[in-house]
Each structure stands twice: as structure tokens, then as C-alpha cells.
Write a structure and sequence with these properties.
Largest interface: A-B, 28 and 27 residues
Number of strands of chain A: 11
Number of strands of chain B: 12
Oligomer: heterodimer
Distance between the termini of chain A: 37 Å
């Protein structure tokens, strides 16, 4: 199957700093990538849809100035958590679908665990 | 808008017993349905999906699910579980419009003990 890679897998930062998480599709081009946030023992909450070459579409309640998403190429999307605070600590997972149709599965990255001290 | 309800937050079973994880969905349009598994501190892996055709879908690791349109359900089953099946299981729905993300249920923790 297709491979989606996230980096870093774990990051610890101080409150007030910014953290960038990268999501790469290794063996396919992803026009659209999706960013999810997962709280402990909770479901995945869709944060935003990242579209190559255009602005991301954020879900209601997600602060676009807090969670900056850039999809500069067909194989890379980045999520930057700006001025991180302890409540931003979470497991962030990106995903992508092969091709432009909606019939395929989403392939998920390994996730990035952010801990803000 | 679509939504997914996983009726059981935790399902404890003994090894080699059968298991069913329940999933109901709500949507006003045609949808695609998925089951994913997540092991601790890892991403999600697809178990199986229903797009169209036969309502009984077989997936990896011996899992299967049946799409029931009248009951808007997509329950996951396995006739005999192993310790290694212990994980979090997520049911998800996707609108059949291009570019749509998956909407997930809250997950079911399957705990298999010996």
C-alpha cells in the first residue's frame, strides 16, 4: 500500500514555542491531505483539509492562526503549531488518499506526539 | 453531514472467542464505510472497506463486516480472536464526494485476554 510518513514522531517543547510537523507521501502524489488530532482514548478529530497549492480548509472550532497548514507540493504537507501551550499536547496524525477519487482508503502517517511543557 | 456511532467503548473478550464491534452511521447521502485498527502510539491501519457491491466485506487478519443499509450499520466481526487483536478499532464514514475526509467514530477498545 501507499506510505505516508510523519516527522517527528515525538516532540517535546516549551510553552510559547512553535513546532512544525511534516507529512510526506513517499510513493504517491497526494493532492489532498488531512490532519487529525487525537486526544487520549478519544477518536480522531478532523482539524483541516490540506490542498496542494491552495489554502487549507479548517473545521469549525480549529484556530487557523494557531495551526498553520502548508501544502507546498504534492508530496509534502506541514502543520505548524504556533505559540504552543500545554493544552495543545496531543497526538497529531496526517493522512492522504491516493488519486483524486473518494473511493480509496486514507493512508495514515505514524502520528506525531506533541508534549508542551 | 455524516456521523458515526460506535456503541461499545470497550469490549473485553477471551482468546479464541468470537467478537462483534458495533457501528452505526448517519448520512443523508451515499457513503463509503471503513474499519481501521490502531495499535498503541501508532497510526491507523485499514482493516476493510465497503464501497459498493456485496454487503459482506472481508478484510485483513480474519475480520469481516456486513453493511446493512436498512439498519445503517456496519458491524465488524471476527470468529476467533487472538491476544494480538488487542487494539483500538475505529469505524469511519466518507461521503462519496471527491476530496472528502473520513469521519470517525469514538473507537472501541478490544481487549483480548487468555
Amino acid at each position: 500500500g501507499a506510505v505516508v510518513s510523519q516527522h517527528p514522531s515525538r516532540v517535546i517543547c516549551k510553552s510559547g514555542t512553535s513546532v512544525k510537523i511534516e507529512c510526506r507521501s513517499l510513493d504517491f502524489q497526494a493532492t489532498t491531505m488531512f490532519w487529525y488530532r487525537q486526544f487520549p482514548k478519544k477518536s480522531l478529530m478532523l482539524m483541516a483539509t490540506s490542498n496542494e497549492g491552495s489554502k487549507a480548509t479548517y473545521e469549525q472550532g480549529v484556530e487557523k492562526d494557531k495551526f498553520l497548514i502548508n501544502h507546498a507540493s504534492l508530496t509534502l504537507s506541514t502543520l505548524t503549531v504556533t505559540s504552543a501551550h500545554p493544552e495543545d499536547s496531543s497526538f497529531y496524525i496526517c493522512s492522504a488518499r491516493v488519486g483524486r477519487t473518494n473511493t480509496g482508503e486514507l493512508f495514515f502517517g505514524e502520528g506525531s506526539r506533541l508534549t508542551v511543557l | 453531514a455524516q456521523s458515526v456511532t460506535q456503541l461499545d467503548s470497550q469490549v473485553p473478550v477471551f482468546e479464541e472467542a468470537p467478537v462483534e464491534l458495533r457501528c452505526n452511521y448517519s448520512s443523508s447521502v451515499s457513503v463509503y464505510l471503513f474499519w481501521y485498527v490502531q495499535y498503541p502510539n501508532q497510526g491507523l491501519q485499514l482493516l476493510l472497506k465497503y464501497l459498493s457491491g456485496s454487503t459482506l466485506v472481508k478484510g485483513i487478519n480474519g475480520f469481516e463486516a456486513e453493511f446493512n443499509k436498512s439498519q445503517t450499520s456496519f458491524h465488524l466481526r471476527k470468529p476467533s480472536v487472538h491476544i494480538s487483536d488487542t487494539a483500538e478499532y475505529f469505524c469511519a464514514v466518507s461521503h462519496n464526494q471527491a476530496g472528502t475526509a473520513l469521519i470517525f467514530g469514538k473507537g472501541t477498545t478490544l481487549s483480548v485476554s487468555s
